[in-house]
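stuck on this one:
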Amino acid sequence: MQSDLHMLLTQAPLQLDDQDLQEIVLESPAGQRRRIDVEVGFCVFEVKRDLRTGNVREDAVVQLAGYVSSRREQTGQRYVGVLADGAEWHLYHLVGESLELVSSLHTDVRNFEPDTLFVWLEGVLATGEKITPTAREIEQRLGAGSAAHALEFAELRALYERHRDDPGLVLKRKLWTKLLTTALGTNFRGEDDLFVEHTLLVAMAEIIGHAVVGLDPTDQSITPVTLLSGRLFASHEIGGVIESDFFDWPAEVAGGEPFVRGLARRLARFAWAHVETDVMKVLYESVIDAEQRHSLGEYYTPDWLAEIVVEETVTDALTERVLDPSCGSGTFLFHAVRRYIAAGEAAGMGIGEMLTGVTSKVLGMDVHPVAVTLARITYLLAIGPERLAHDDRPAFSVPVYLGDSMQWGQQNTLMNTDALSVPTDGGQLFDDDLLFPHRLLHDAGRFDRLVAELADRAAARAPGSPVPSLKATFRLFAVHDDDQPMLTATFAKMCELHDTGRDHIWGYYIRNLARPLSLADSANRVDVMVGNPPWLAYRYMPPQMKSEFREMSTARGFWAGAAVATNQDLSALFVARATELYLRNAGRFAFVMPLAVLTRNQYAGFRSGRWSPGGTGGGAANVNAALDTAWDLHAVKPAFFPVPASVIRGHRTTEHGSTAPGTENWAGRISRRNAPLPIARPALTRAAATTAASGERSPYAARFTQGAILVPRFLVLVEPKSTGPFGAGAGRRMVGSRRSSNEKKPWKDLPALSGAVEKQFVRPIHLGDTILPFREQEPFLGVIPWDGRQLLQGSDDTIDLYPGFADWWRAAENTWNTYRSTDKLSLLDQLDYRRKLRAQFPAGEHRVVYTKGGMYLAAARVSDPSAVIDHKLYWAATSSIDEARYLTAILNSPALLELVRPLQGRGEHNPRDFDKYVFQIPFPLYDADNNHHQRIADLAASAETVAAAVEVPNTSFQTQRRAVRRALEDDGVAASIDGEIAALLGPTG
């Protein structure tokens, strides 16, 4: 077995030869000689014939633990162990004196895939060299599913557990939680595993940063503290890349050095000079799993889209200042930097002028500390190793900052009178905050250097010693006499922070927190903004953010009301706020946003272009936008976000805002989601812009309303049950819960209800499933708490007049109260939300319903006044049967559908909901004296006759609707109706 393993390791593409494999003889404490089967680098292999037999695996783990522990003690290096029998491969790391399983690979001899085993082994051994850092290689060798990642995470998690109570680490984790709650909302829980994962990502990025500038991160003369603090960058006159931050703790704690050195060795395998896209984004998405990224709303823009946005928005790269105020991992920055460099080289610029220029023209900011570190390394990758190593390369600083672009609550929390106020720990550590005179913020570079000087001086003094004088510092930085007392007091507090082990993080925190205020200075505003703003949903915002969001949205006319509050997100307000703060007048912008921005009600205020915060002062009286043609990206596949996307474009103006003139429709299938632009461009088509929908609405909009929310279904919908030998009793029906495979947890796992219920409470129920074009199917049945005069609930005295219904309803209420997700709504509140149930009583003789969503509208008359309409349908009463038929003809017509479809919200593949967007097409009220209207009603009557005669199959409602539509087309009535409706609607589209 040992010889087989030896042969595998030397002949597999692991870049090993015989001298790399050693046999080591160890002496056990009992004096017995033990022999390690194979050792490669810092990995010990133990081989057995069959790990499934008896206690072979358990005994081998104990034996392997001794080998790994002995080698670690002898060499001072971090060692791991692999236990294998050829079919099973298990990777272990040492925690204390015992081994913990990190990763396993099981091979199937019948379908053996050698490459899978080779990649796993290479991840363990880290023997590769000059690996090109493509997305596939990064995901395979460094991603969450790799053995390498499993090992590094396990090691770092164990290190964190040993030091989690260290004061400095506690503070860093607390500030990390505070910032990311702002960035990601209440879905961010601040779990230990995520903090460790973020620490690992940042450490990887910082090590990669050293490799990019030509430094060897495996050089034993470079200490881990040096790697994670950025000292080498400072000594090479490159600033703003790596700082002492939330994530440098592994280099500071005992046992951290072997971890950092091992991580550096793994990352040094890649040829980081050969990068043409934002590989930091790939690294992030390969480490943080998709489910977690989805829950936090973290999705980064594909390279091809970022490049084309930059290409079409930055028209003069050498003169225009460009800002991405939500830069993420730096995808837009990467392409803006590359665009500047290409223009500079074409203009014959020298390296000094080029780097000085690009770092003053391309800027980034984000509130996510991990994203900021990744973006800084991305910025270096965009500049390129050859330019960074050039003899004429000037000193420069990477202009990517950790900052809150929204400046949430800055008037009350950050800016107090004439000072920047930085809370040191939510007010819990000290009575006063750290204060910095506002005058210092005008010169951002000077402010950065001053804060770094104060932080370094506070850290250099002996704990408990007198606070040093700042006279020389004041002279060096030309600090105004009036500002010196405030800075002296702040410096004293920084020294006190240092004495409690909470020191250097504040320099990092302060410098970055001030950056948005500096960029908002009128003299510092930029010419172009590009990016992908946060799509944080209102329902996931923390309470204070919700309050400020609503206040700021209301001031700008963006607040669409509580009815759609859960559908609102931060993106629109973010773009307007960033425009207000950072973009000069006539400056251009382009942002990737949800497709819903183009049509949905909650974005109507944003689409108007009138973004001025009325009555808020602050010199922002004319913050409006002239919107340009938007890009609809829904038909570009594969989908790159969980919801369809668009690009909103325009420029800032002091005139009245204006809506977009239309939409340009993009389509195409790209070979891979994150393809570069040269691969994506040939696959894309861009259709001519379509005209935006008219602002006029149909008068029927006010008459239609959504049905009642009859959910959970099994508490309401019923089906007849056998009455048994005693019957149901006079005036009652024996019913039980109607169950469905579509039920969700927890309801799907709960027992059904059953009972004899008074007949007056068992009503017909129309769902979306029961409506076909021009035809209603047999409705379902449901228990509805309407006694003819009022809605009842279990606590009402009158409910006991109906004992069968009372038993059912109280059982339903008990189930609801036990398993509901929130205690805000009773079961009756749920069914009658916004009075959608009681509004149906009493019902008129003629009603029209249409389906809420889908690919095709289906509408029909409902003639039974006792029927209840569910929320999957919209309904309205009509004054006559002819008016009802007139409406069903319009709603079922392809002519209307063609005009409504661009207004629908969309899923990944198809349009989703019609809701009341059908009424954005301004069709008129029915007029009985209008011959055209009467012809439409007569044609609808014919269509009802055709639809009623169709023998629909006993299958899905989609198949049934297709059968009816086909019959209407074959009869010719469908074409006749469509012609009349097209004439009725005229050129409204």
User: Anything to note?
Assistant: The radius of gyration is 34 Å. The mean pLDDT is 86.
